[in-house]
Write a structure and sequence with these properties.
Shape: elongated
Helix content: 40-55%
Structural class: mainly alpha
Largest sheet: 2 strands, antiparallel
Number of helices: 8
Number of strands: 2
Protein backbone atom coordinates (compact mmCIF):
# COMPACT_ATOMS: atom_id res chain seq x y z
CA UNK A 1 0.00 0.00 0.00
CA UNK A 2 2.83 2.39 0.84
CA UNK A 3 4.52 1.58 -2.48
CA UNK A 4 1.38 2.48 -4.43
CA UNK A 5 0.93 5.65 -2.41
CA UNK A 6 4.54 6.70 -3.07
CA UNK A 7 4.14 6.00 -6.79
CA UNK A 8 0.99 8.10 -7.00
CA UNK A 9 2.61 10.92 -5.05
CA UNK A 10 5.66 10.93 -7.33
CA UNK A 11 3.46 10.94 -10.46
CA UNK A 12 1.18 13.75 -9.27
CA UNK A 13 3.10 16.71 -10.63
CA UNK A 14 2.45 19.40 -13.22
CA UNK A 15 5.23 17.98 -15.38
CA UNK A 16 3.43 14.67 -15.85
CA UNK A 17 0.15 16.08 -17.16
CA UNK A 18 -0.96 15.77 -20.76
CA UNK A 19 0.50 19.15 -21.72
CA UNK A 20 3.80 18.21 -20.06
CA UNK A 21 5.64 14.93 -20.50
CA UNK A 22 2.58 12.71 -20.01
CA UNK A 23 1.45 10.16 -17.47
CA UNK A 24 3.78 7.40 -18.70
CA UNK A 25 6.79 9.60 -18.00
CA UNK A 26 5.41 10.07 -14.51
CA UNK A 27 5.05 6.33 -14.09
CA UNK A 28 8.66 5.75 -15.17
CA UNK A 29 9.85 8.52 -12.86
CA UNK A 30 7.94 6.96 -9.95
CA UNK A 31 9.29 3.48 -10.75
CA UNK A 32 12.86 4.79 -10.86
CA UNK A 33 12.42 6.32 -7.42
CA UNK A 34 11.75 2.81 -6.05
CA UNK A 35 13.83 0.60 -8.35
CA UNK A 36 17.58 1.34 -8.52
CA UNK A 37 17.76 1.14 -12.33
CA UNK A 38 15.63 0.29 -15.37
CA UNK A 39 16.47 -0.58 -18.93
CA UNK A 40 14.36 0.62 -21.81
CA UNK A 41 13.18 -2.95 -22.46
CA UNK A 42 12.17 -3.64 -18.85
CA UNK A 43 10.38 -0.29 -18.60
CA UNK A 44 8.52 -1.03 -21.85
CA UNK A 45 7.36 -4.36 -20.42
CA UNK A 46 6.21 -2.71 -17.17
CA UNK A 47 4.34 0.03 -19.02
CA UNK A 48 2.92 -2.19 -21.73
CA UNK A 49 4.12 0.01 -24.59
CA UNK A 50 6.71 -0.37 -27.34
CA UNK A 51 10.40 0.06 -26.70
CA UNK A 52 10.48 2.91 -29.20
CA UNK A 53 7.84 4.84 -27.23
CA UNK A 54 9.65 4.06 -23.98
CA UNK A 55 12.93 5.31 -25.45
CA UNK A 56 11.20 8.58 -26.36
CA UNK A 57 9.94 8.93 -22.79
CA UNK A 58 13.42 8.24 -21.41
CA UNK A 59 14.84 10.84 -23.79
CA UNK A 60 12.40 13.48 -22.51
CA UNK A 61 13.18 12.62 -18.90
CA UNK A 62 16.92 12.79 -19.62
CA UNK A 63 16.58 16.14 -21.41
CA UNK A 64 15.22 17.60 -18.16
CA UNK A 65 17.90 15.80 -16.12
CA UNK A 66 15.35 13.77 -14.18
CA UNK A 67 17.20 10.53 -14.96
CA UNK A 68 20.88 9.71 -15.39
CA UNK A 69 22.75 6.91 -17.14
CA UNK A 70 23.49 3.95 -14.87
CA UNK A 71 25.53 0.78 -15.33
CA UNK A 72 22.29 -1.25 -15.35
CA UNK A 73 20.32 1.16 -17.58
CA UNK A 74 18.78 4.38 -16.28
CA UNK A 75 18.43 5.65 -12.72
CA UNK A 76 16.70 8.52 -11.01
CA UNK A 77 18.80 11.64 -10.53
CA UNK A 78 19.69 12.62 -7.00
CA UNK A 79 18.10 16.08 -7.27
CA UNK A 80 14.38 16.53 -7.82
CA UNK A 81 14.17 18.88 -10.79
CA UNK A 82 10.49 18.38 -11.59
CA UNK A 83 9.53 21.97 -10.69
CA UNK A 84 12.26 23.42 -12.89
CA UNK A 85 11.29 21.09 -15.75
CA UNK A 86 7.62 22.07 -15.38
CA UNK A 87 8.55 25.74 -15.63
CA UNK A 88 10.71 24.97 -18.69
CA UNK A 89 7.83 23.09 -20.36
CA UNK A 90 5.40 25.88 -19.43
CA UNK A 91 3.08 23.64 -17.41
CA UNK A 92 3.82 24.87 -13.89
CA UNK A 93 0.55 25.37 -12.01
CA UNK A 94 -1.52 23.10 -14.27
CA UNK A 95 -2.81 20.90 -11.44
CA UNK A 96 -3.67 23.90 -9.23
CA UNK A 97 -5.59 25.49 -12.12
CA UNK A 98 -7.43 22.23 -12.73
CA UNK A 99 -8.35 21.93 -9.05
CA UNK A 100 -9.70 25.49 -9.07
CA UNK A 101 -11.77 24.83 -12.21
CA UNK A 102 -13.21 21.68 -10.64
CA UNK A 103 -14.01 23.56 -7.42
CA UNK A 104 -15.85 26.27 -9.36
CA UNK A 105 -17.71 23.66 -11.41
CA UNK A 106 -18.80 21.79 -8.27
CA UNK A 107 -20.02 25.05 -6.74
CA UNK A 108 -22.02 26.05 -9.84
CA UNK A 109 -23.44 22.52 -10.02
CA UNK A 110 -24.60 22.66 -6.38
CA UNK A 111 -26.04 26.13 -6.96
CA UNK A 112 -27.93 24.94 -10.04
CA UNK A 113 -29.36 21.97 -8.15
CA UNK A 114 -30.48 24.28 -5.35
CA UNK A 115 -32.16 26.44 -7.98
CA UNK A 116 -33.91 23.42 -9.52
CA UNK A 117 -35.14 22.42 -6.06
CA UNK A 118 -36.41 25.95 -5.51
CA UNK A 119 -38.21 25.97 -8.88
CA UNK A 120 -39.86 22.57 -8.40
CA UNK A 121 -41.06 22.90 -4.80
CA UNK A 122 -44.31 24.57 -3.88
CA UNK A 123 -43.87 28.21 -2.87
CA UNK A 124 -45.01 27.58 0.71
CA UNK A 125 -42.55 24.70 1.12
CA UNK A 126 -39.53 26.71 -0.04
CA UNK A 127 -36.95 27.91 2.41
CA UNK A 128 -37.07 31.65 2.77
CA UNK A 129 -34.06 33.54 1.58
CA UNK A 130 -32.81 36.47 3.50
CA UNK A 131 -33.59 39.77 1.87
CA UNK A 132 -30.78 42.26 1.38
CA UNK A 133 -32.31 44.74 3.80
CA UNK A 134 -32.75 42.14 6.54
CA UNK A 135 -29.05 41.31 6.81
CA UNK A 136 -27.40 41.92 10.11
CA UNK A 137 -23.81 43.02 10.58
CA UNK A 138 -22.83 39.36 10.49
CA UNK A 139 -22.28 38.61 6.82
CA UNK A 140 -22.02 34.84 7.08
CA UNK A 141 -25.05 32.65 7.43
CA UNK A 142 -24.38 30.64 10.60
CA UNK A 143 -27.70 28.81 10.61
CA UNK A 144 -27.45 25.01 10.40
CA UNK A 145 -28.71 23.10 7.38
CA UNK A 146 -28.59 23.63 3.62
CA UNK A 147 -26.53 26.50 2.30
CA UNK A 148 -28.55 29.55 1.35
CA UNK A 149 -27.80 30.38 -2.29
CA UNK A 150 -28.61 33.61 -4.12
CA UNK A 151 -31.00 33.49 -7.06
CA UNK A 152 -29.40 31.84 -10.06
CA UNK A 153 -28.58 34.37 -12.82
CA UNK A 154 -30.99 34.42 -15.75
CA UNK A 155 -30.67 35.53 -19.36
CA UNK A 156 -33.21 37.69 -21.22
CA UNK A 157 -35.40 34.64 -21.94
CA UNK A 158 -35.55 33.67 -18.26
CA UNK A 159 -33.33 30.62 -18.66
CA UNK A 160 -30.40 29.95 -16.35
CA UNK A 161 -27.31 31.89 -17.39
CA UNK A 162 -24.61 29.31 -16.68
CA UNK A 163 -21.81 31.46 -18.06
CA UNK A 164 -22.61 34.23 -15.56
CA UNK A 165 -22.96 31.67 -12.77
CA UNK A 166 -19.51 30.33 -13.57
CA UNK A 167 -18.14 33.88 -13.58
CA UNK A 168 -19.55 34.40 -10.08
CA UNK A 169 -18.07 31.11 -8.85
CA UNK A 170 -14.61 31.68 -10.35
CA UNK A 171 -14.37 35.18 -8.88
CA UNK A 172 -15.37 34.11 -5.37
CA UNK A 173 -18.64 35.98 -5.40
CA UNK A 174 -20.58 32.96 -4.08
CA UNK A 175 -18.57 32.56 -0.90
CA UNK A 176 -20.89 32.72 2.11
CA UNK A 177 -19.04 35.75 3.50
CA UNK A 178 -18.94 37.60 0.17
CA UNK A 179 -20.77 40.91 -0.06
CA UNK A 180 -21.10 40.61 -3.84
CA UNK A 181 -24.18 38.45 -4.03
CA UNK A 182 -25.94 40.05 -1.09
CA UNK A 183 -26.74 43.08 -3.24
CA UNK A 184 -27.76 41.00 -6.28
CA UNK A 185 -29.90 38.42 -4.51
Amino acid sequence: MTTLENQLTDQRHDLFTRAGLGHLAGKIYALLRQIPALTVESAARLLGVSTRHTATIFSRLRRHKLIVKHADGWASSKRDLRDHAARTEGVAGTLADRAERYRAEREVWAWWHAEIDRMTTAPRARTRRLHVTSRTLEFTDSRPGERNWPLYPRDRDGRGDHRMARYWAVNGMLAPGSLWWSSAA
